Amino acid sequence: MHRRNFLSLIAGFAVSPAAIAKSNARKQCLLLIELQGGNDGLNTVIPFADKAYSTLRPTLAIKNDKLWKLDEKTALHPSLHKLNDCWQADQLAIVQGLGYENPNRSHFRSHDIWTSASEFDQRKDSGWLADTLPEENSTVQAVIYGNRSSVLQGGELNYISMHRTREFLSAKLPKLQALESNANNSQRHVHSVLKNTLAYQQRLRAVAKSLEAKGPDDGGEFGNNLFAKQLQDAALLISSGLAPSVITLHLKGFDTHANQIERQGKLLENLSTALAAFRAQLIQNGHWDDTLVVTWSEFGRRAGENASGGTDHGTAAPQFVLGGRVKGGLHGQQPSLSELQNDDLVHTVDFRQLYASLAEQWWTLADSSINKKRYPALDLVKSA
Fold it and tell me: For a Cys-Cys bond, which of 49, 173, 186, 259 suits 73, CB 3.0-4.6 Å?
């Protein structure tokens, strides 16, 4: 086999030999969902009582009679209505106004800042999770659905990546098995990587059997789209006792420069439908208290709409935190619509405060890469 073919097969594996012996003991799992492209926070968590909202957005403002109102001032986009049970159970936290000083409107640079937890004028080669999570030779610490996640780059974390669990088990592993059987002594490193990778497959057999029992791969109650199916796979992974410390997913399409009403509405509907099914399944299987779901996006959108029925790259935006141990409700302060800076919202909560909360309250880490004096944790998670 050509070297490039081999590399394409093993891409995404970094599993230590000791990972194979890890038991199926339950553990806490953080599920990170990237709303890729920059979600418009102002039409997600809506300050409908502020008259400036409809003034800034004469055609994009969600009509009052369609809003899912949380209180007398704040509402959610109607497409998020399937999260109502989670909200009513006080298991949905909405962190308002997340951003950082001297915001950058470039997708690439702002993405780097969010994934590395760096300052606006600082360059880092490692992701904030790679810097935060302690190394464990005895476990697979992360599962990545889709492209490699920058929050995990650098360091020595053990991870495995896949597009879909079913596809991974049916297509990629047979090729790896054939390659492993043909490896010779001169390919000792290759043989070692393959052996460890294939051994991890044994722990996925329960997942494979469950997938086969489900029949057609249509996503079911999660929804018939790639994100929904990947979230369904993640739920099955957690329910099967294979939860790593971190699972990452991406929901693409939030760069809504035009036709935003329809595009964002569909994306938020896909998000809420899949998350509602995910929560229901984990509650049924007794793993909801062990799971924390957090959304993030590289930036929000401009306060005002553009001439194309959309919004351009902006700054601050809200994010969601869901789980059985979450302290639900509104956290932080909605950015002012009357005190804009260069036509942008001014952030009220630094996004690294969210990361500090995860390190302190979810993983109970006394030390992490986050400067907790500058970025104090929010009160988001109940103790176990």
Answer: 49
- CA atoms within a 13 Å half-sphere pointing along the CA-CB vector of 369: 18
Contact partners, residue 211, CB within 8 Å, separation at least 6: 165, 166, 169, 217, 236
SS (H, E, C) 329-384: EEECCCCCCCCCECCECCCCEEHHHHHHHHHHHHCCCCCCCCCCCCCCCCCCECCC
pTM metric for this prediction? 0.88
For residue 4, name the pLDDT band (cuts at 50, 70, 90).
Answer: very low
Token pair of 273 as six digits: 């439908």
Q: DSSP of 75-126, one letter per residue?
A: EE-GGGGGGHHHHHTT-EEEEEEEE-SS----HHHHHHHHHHT--TT---SS
CA distance 364 to 133: 11
Cα-trace Rg, the chain: 21
Dihedral Cα 215, 167, 233, 200, nearest 10 deg: 120
C-beta of residue 300 within 8 angstroms of C-beta of residue 39: yes
Q: What is the mean pLDDT of the chain?
A: 85
Q: How far is CA 311 from CA 32, 223, 263, in A?
A: 25, 27, 12
Least Cα distance to 295 among 152, 114, 57 occurs for: 114
**C-alpha to C-alpha distance for 68 and 113, rounded to whole angstroms:** 32
Cβ contact 152:144 at 8 Å: yes
Residues 339 and 62: beta-carbon distance below 8 Å: no
Backbone φ/ψ region at 97: left (φ over 0), alpha (ψ -120 to 50), beta: left
Q: Three-state SS for 249?
A: strand
Number of H helices, E strands in the chain: 12, 13
Joined tokens for residue 229: 């199916």
Per-residue confidence band for 212, with pLDDT thresholds at 50, 70 and 90:
low
